Amino acid sequence: MSIAWSETLASGSAEIDNQHKELFARINRLLAAQNNSRAGLEEIGRVVQYLTDYVVFHFGSEEKLMDRHRYSSSSGHKAQHAQFVKVFQRLKDRMFTEGLTPALQQETADLVVDWLLNHIKYSDRALGAFLRLKNVGSAQTADPAEEPVYDREGAFIHR
């Protein structure tokens, strides 16, 4: 099993998309280590920690962008991040207490692959659309009447 980047997952934010590509690379390292019968728990632990560190960095980067640009859906988005971290931590703890059983290996793969793909497809692409409409990374719109308008959930309101 592996996870592959596709342009259909692109958020439109180069910063976020580059971080997603790095997350995919780290997830693939984890999946490869889990599938390598010669990889010991210590080696898998290093890969898991490597992935954990990057997840924390990436979620922090997204959350700073949300805060800086007052993304109205940030609380729900941040809650998704917190839930992932919580569940991933439980899986890590089980890995070191139970060992890497086939069932735990599958749960871990399902979490990191399925959750991340769905999170990117829906939550991160919505954030990317919001940032593009706010002209993040480009000159701000000069005419305030042309500024995008969002509802309380961060959805773009067409004028």
Gyration radius from CA atoms, angstroms: 18 Å
Strand content: under 5%
Q: Low-confidence stretches at least 5 residues in length (pLDDT < 50)?
A: 138-159
The number of distinct β-strands equals 2
Q: What sort of overall outline do the alpha carbons produce when their principal axes are compared? A: elongated
Main sheet makeup: 2 strands, antiparallel
Structural class: mainly alpha
Helicity level: 55-70%
Q: What are the SSEs and their pairings?
A:
Layout: H1 14-35, H2 41-68, H3 74-98, H4 102-133, E1 149-150, E2 156-157
Antiparallel strand pairs: 1-2
Explain what the structure shows.
The structure is a single chain. This protein is elongated. It contains four helices and two strands. The protein has helices at about 15-35, 40-70, 75-100, 100-135; strands spanning about 150, 155. Residues about 140-159 have low confidence and may be disordered. The chain has a single domain (about 15-155), classed as Hemerythrin-like (Four Helix Bundle (Hemerythrin (Met), subunit A)), CATH 1.20.120. By secondary structure, it is mostly helical. It has a two-stranded antiparallel sheet with strand order 1-2. A hairpin with a 5-residue loop joins strand 1 (about 150) and strand 2 (about 155).
